[in-house]
Amino acid sequence: MIQIYFKIAWRNLMKRKFYALVSILGLSVGITFTLLIGTYIWGELQVNADLKNVENQYLIQSKWKKPDIGLEITTLAPLAKTLKENYPNLVKNYYGFEGYTSTISNGDRVFREDIQIGDATLLNMYGFQLLYGDSKTALNQPYTMVISSEQAIKYFGKLDCLGKSLTIESNAGQKKSFMITGVLGKVNTNSVMNLLSDTRIPILMSFESSKFWGIEKYFAWNNPYNVGYVELRNGVNPATVAQVMTKLIKANAPENISTNLQAYLVPMKDVYLEANNGIVKKTIFTLLFVALFILVMAIVNFINMSIGNSVTRLKEIGVRKMLGSEKGQLIRQFLAESILISLFSLLISLILYEVFQPFFGEMLHKKIPSLLTVSSYFYLFAVLFAVLIGLLSGIYPAFILSNLPSIDSLKGKLKSIKENIFFRRLLIVSQFTIALFVFVGAFVISKQVNYFFNKDLGYQKEAVVTLSVPRDWSPVGVDKMERIRDELAKLKEVSQVSLSYDIPAGHGGNNNAFYKMGQDSTQAVYIQTITTDEKYADTYQIPMVAGAYFQRKQESFQAGKIVLNETGIKTLGFKNPTEAIGKEIRIHYYPQPFTIVGVTKDFHIASMHKAISPLVFMNVRDFPFFRYLSFKIQPNNLAQSLSSIEQKWRVLMPGSAFEYTFIDDTLQKLYQSEIQLKKASQVATILSIIIVLLGILGMVSMSIARRTKELGIRKVLGASSISIVMLFLKEFIILVVIAIAISFPLGIISMNHWLTTYAYRIQLDWQTFLTVALGFSLIIAIFVFLQTFKTALENPIKSLKTE
Amino acid sequence: MLQLKNIFRWYNSGVNRAFVLRDISLTIEQGEFVSIMGPSGSGKSTLLHVLGMMDEPNEGEYSFLGENVLKIKEKQRAELYKKHIGFVFQAYHLIDELTVYENIETPLLYHGIGSSERKSMVADILDRFNIVGKKDLFPNQLSGGQQQLVGIARAIITKPNLILADEPTGNLNSKQGQEIMELFKTLNEEGVTIIQVTHSEKNATYGSRIIELLDGRIER
C-alpha cells in the first residue's frame, strides 16, 4: 500500500512540476539551514563530552564581592591540590595550571606559543591519549614537555619527535632547552586545554618546570590567577566540596581575599556552555530559534500551496471516497505526497549543505563537518527530520482535503475551499511577521556592531599595529626593549612606538588595590592597572585632561609617577582631575607612595558591554612588565611599512618571532560573538525573504491561473494593466501592514532588551523601522509586479478562450 | 433488498424549503433492473445518491439488506456500501493519475485484498471486458466508451450485489451506449441488481421496471 501511495504521489508531483519545485525549494532552504545549525550545535554540545569520567569533573570558579580583585574562571593557586590532599575521600584527582606565553624555537622555526604549566596529573585524569610517549610519566620530569601533533609537524615536520628538544625563552630573557616526552593524538575541543583559546592547544609542562620562569613562588594562597580542576569521587555532592573550600580559604588565604572570595564548582559539562555569561548557550538558543522561524516559514509556504492547489484534486478525492476509501487512507495518501516532497528537499539540502558549509563554518568560527566526514547518525537524523517536516507540513492539508464532502466534490460544485481563506491569510501574515522581525533584528544588530567600530573610541585605532615581544621582565630587559623601540621609531614609515603590558581591546591587565594618602588600607579600591612607557598616549592619541603622560618631552624618567583616567580619579574620590595632579596615592604591598602626574580622558580600552572602568597607568620602568610594542604607522602603504619594521626587527632581535596584529583586528576579536550574530541575522534575513518570495511566487501564479477568465473580462471592460497588477498587490499590501503592526512592537521589545546588555548602545529610531517597512514592501511589490505584469498585458481574448 | 419509506429531501433557500424528494416509498428486490426516469430537476440523481448512501434524506426510513441505514454509524455505513454497492457515473470519474489497471485495482486496495489475488481479479476483468491491451494507458488516452467500460469494470470488480448507474451512457454515442447496456443486461442476468438513472426510453427498456419521477414524487 505504501508503495502505491508513493507511486501516486510521484505522478501528482510530476503533473504539477512548478508548484512541486517551489515547495521543494522553500523546504530545502529551511532544511539546509537547520542541518547546518544542527551540526554546529551538536559540535558545541560535544565539547568536553569525551573527557574521562566527565560526570565527576569540575572547574573551580570564583565569585568576588569586589569584582576587580580577581577573575571568575581562576582560583587560588594551591586550592585544588590542597583539596585532594586534605579530603581524599571527597576528591579523587586534581589539576591546576598557570597560563603563559613565550617564544619557542627549533633553529630558525620561531613561534610564540601558549604554555600551560600545571600538575602532572593532567593526561591520566582526563584520559588524553599520546601518539608517542607514556602518558603516565610524560609530565613527571622538570624541563620536559608534551606537544600537540600540529606543533610536532610545525617544528619538526614529523610526528615522532620524542627525545628531541625545543628552546624556550623565559621572562628574564634566558633560553633553555626542553625535551619532548610526549606527542598528543587528536584532541577534541575541551575546557582543560582550550579554556582561554578554543582554537589552539597549548604546550603542556609540569609545575616542576616553573622554576625556569621564577614563578614557583607564585604558587601561594595570595595568587588568585591560577586555574584549578577537581575530579570528585562518585556520589559526592559539589555543595559539600564548596563548604570545604570556604573552610580552606578562610584558614589559608590572606584576609583581603578570604573575606571577598567564594569558590564554587562548575561541572565540566557546563563550563563551556556557561562561559562568558553563557555566550555559547545564548548563541545556540538564538540560532535554534532562527532555524525554527525559517522552518515554520517554509512549512507555511507548503501548506498554502497544497491547499491552493487542492481544487485540482477535488474530483480525485470524491472518486476515491466512492470507491470505498476511508478518511485515514486519504490522509495517508496526502501525507505520502508531502513526505516525498520533503525527502526531495532533503536531497537538495544535502547539496546546499556541502556548498554552504565552509561559509557557515567561517561565520560561526567553528569547523562544520563536511558530508564526507559526518557520522551515519547524521544521515539517519536527516532522513527522520525530513519525514517529520513532511508530516508537519502535510497533516493540515491532508485533514482539510479528506474532509471535503464527496458528492459536492464529484459534481464539481466545490470550486475552491472558501472557509480556509482566513486561515491561509493568517499563515501568510505570520510568515511576513517572522520575516519582518528577523529583518528588524538584523538591521538593529548591524547598526550596533557598526557603532562599536565607528563610535569615537577615545583613541585612534587606524594604522596601529601591535607586536608581541619577548619578555625579559627586568630593568635591563626594559632598557633593551626601549632601545629597540627607539631604533624602530627612527624608521620613516613609523611615526610613534610604545612599549606596554596591555593594548586597547586586549586581555586586560591585573588589578591592584589603591587608596589615598591618609586613608586606611581597608578602604582601598581595586583598579585595573597596566604598565606602559611614556609614549603610549601619543601612539594611541589619547587626549590628556590634566597634567602630562608621565613626563613632558625632554624631561627624563623619574620613579614613582602614576597616571589615571578620569573615571579612576573619580573612583579614588577626587573632585576633579586638576585637583588630583600632584597628589600622592598608595598601592597595597608597596611601601613608597606614587604621585599622580596626569589624567587621561576616558577611552574604550575594553568592550562596550561595560561602562568605562577606572584605569591606572604605571611606568614600565617602575614595574618591568611588558608584552607589546605598538606602532603608529603611515596608513598609505601598510605592507611596505610592515616589511621595513620586520627587517629592522630581525636585525635588532635575531631569533625571535615576528607576530603582529592590527588593532582593528583585535577589536574584531573583542566583538566576535556580536559580529557572528550580525552575520547570522543577515543570513536569516536573506533566507526568510527568499522563502517569502517563493511563497508569493506560488500563490500569485495560482491566483492568476484561477482568475484568468475574470482578468479577461475585466480587461474587455476596460481595466488598465496597472489596475490588474494592483488587484493582486492590494491583498499582499494589506497583509504586510498587519504583519508590520505585529512584528514591530515585538522587534522593539526584544531589540531593546538585547541593547541593554551594552553600556554603550544605539537608540532605536523610527528611521530604522521605516527603512525595514519600505524595504520589505518594495521587495514584495516589485516581485508581484514582475509576475503579474505579463498577464496584465496579454490579449484578453486569449485568456477568455481558455475557458 | 432495499426499502425506502416516506423519504423527504429538501434544501433551505431563504425562508422556503425547496423540496427535491417528496414522500418517496419504494421497494426493490434482489435481481431487479430498475430504470429511474424523469425530466431534469425531478430528483432522479438525488434519489440515486440517497440509495447509494452518498446523501442523507431529511426525513424517512431506509433499510438496506434489512439494516436501518440512517440509524447506523458513518463507518458501518461506509463498510456496507463498500461491500455491496458499485457506482457508475455519467462522467466516468476515473482517476486521471492512474492507469486503467490501477483504476480498476483501487477499490480492491480499499477492500484490503492481497496482492496476488488482486492481480488475478484485475486480470480476469480486463480479459472479460476485452481491454487487456489498454491496461497501461491513462484515462485521457481512451475514448469515452472505453473509459466507461473501465468505470464499470471498476464498479463490479468487488462483486457488489447492487450497481448504481447515473446516466451511464449520457456521454456516449449510440453504439457505445448500446454496448454498455448489453453489458448491464448480462450482469443483471448473473444476479446483480441494477438501478440506473436515464433519460433515454430505449435504455429504460433494458430494465425490468421503470420508476418515473416528477417534481420529487413517484409518478408511476
Structural class of chain B: alpha/beta
Helix content of chain A: 40-55%
Residue-averaged pLDDT of chain A, rounded? 87
Number of strands of chain B: 10
Give me the number of helical elements of chain A. 24
* Helix segment tally of chain B: 7
What structural category do the secondary elements of chain A indicate? alpha+beta
**Uncertain runs of chain A with pLDDT below 50, 5 residues or more?**
none
What summary fits the major beta sheet of chain A?
A: 10 strands, mixed
What are the secondary-structure elements of chain B, in order, as H or E?
A: EEEHEEHEHHHEHEHEE
Query: Could you tell me which chain pair has the largest interface and how many residues each side has?
Result: A-B, 20 and 22 residues
Terminal Cα span of chain A? 37 Å
**Beta fraction of chain B:** 25-35%
Low-confidence residue ranges of chain B: none
Cα-based radius of gyration of chain A, to the nearest Å: 34 Å
